[in-house]
Amino acid sequence: MREVTGAESVQAMVHCIGSMSFLMAMLAGLQGVRSAVCSQLAFFPDSPPLNRVKAGLDLGSFLTILGVETMTTSFDARNWKDKLADAVLKLNPKAQRCTSPVCRRIQLIYGEVYKHDQLNDATHKAMHEMFGVANLTTFNHIARMIRAGKIVDKNGKDVYLPNIGRLAIPITLIHGAENGLFVPQGTEKTFKLLCEKNHPRFYTRIVFPKYAHMDCFIGKNASRDIYPTVMLELEKYN
Questions:
Q1: Nearest to residue 186, comparing CAs of 145, 231, 230, 134?
Q2: Domains in the chain, start-ordered, CATH in brackets?
Q3: Which tens digits make up the pLDDT trace of 17-28?
């Protein structure tokens, strides 16, 4: 982008795995970023117990051995395999709170990534459009980092955090207080480590009550509750 526009620097608004990937890129030597807002995930992918169990079992690697390369939350009511899988997912008490088979698949693959009461009906019905096909290579890397408790490369090597000095730029960490995918303690630990290793003046951390993960951006009131704060943090370094 900078090569096209000629801009000396850019700002970044990054979310979830995109946030973690951005920070890993910065730690690996990416330059030209003057400030960033990082949402929900940073150095430490702290997850709820069920996600830690799934990562510990290394289910992604098992599926890779079986020849499975991708996962999707799509549901085809004409496909008997999809109908059978959904019948099994309905046995989960949490999945019974919603009538959407797509939501049940999202719950299985990712966990609780949004609070239903934060979504309006139109967004809920369009949820199938927001989750594309995910490759297992990415899932396996994320699982490895959950097991390691921090960002590591695909082989499990600690190649990023030793370069934390490269993140001496203004960074705002934001998190939903009720995030059921990556819990708030992850960005809290990241914030403390950044302040300790660099300087507290660079960093801010903001937690939004009553919000989870994706609903910080697609929630029915996110434009009122979240977006102005994000814009304010970016405009500080415009």
A1: 145
A2: 2-46+151-235 (3.40.50.1820), 49-137 (no CATH)
A3: 999 999 999 999
